[in-house]
Amino acid sequence: MAKILLLIMIVLVATITAVEATPPVPEQSSAEVDKKINEVNLTLKKVFDDVIASVPPAKKKEAIDATSKHLHIAERTLAKAKAGGEEKVATVALKYELSAKIVMEAPPAMKLERMEELFNAMAAPNHKDCLTNVNDKPFCETVSKLQKAFKEVRAAVAQGKKEETIDDVFLINQEFAPTIRAINKAYADGDDKEIAAVLATYNKCADAILAAPPAEKFRVMQESIAAASSASSGKA
Question: What pTM, to 2 d.p., does this model score?
Answer without folding.
Answer: 0.76
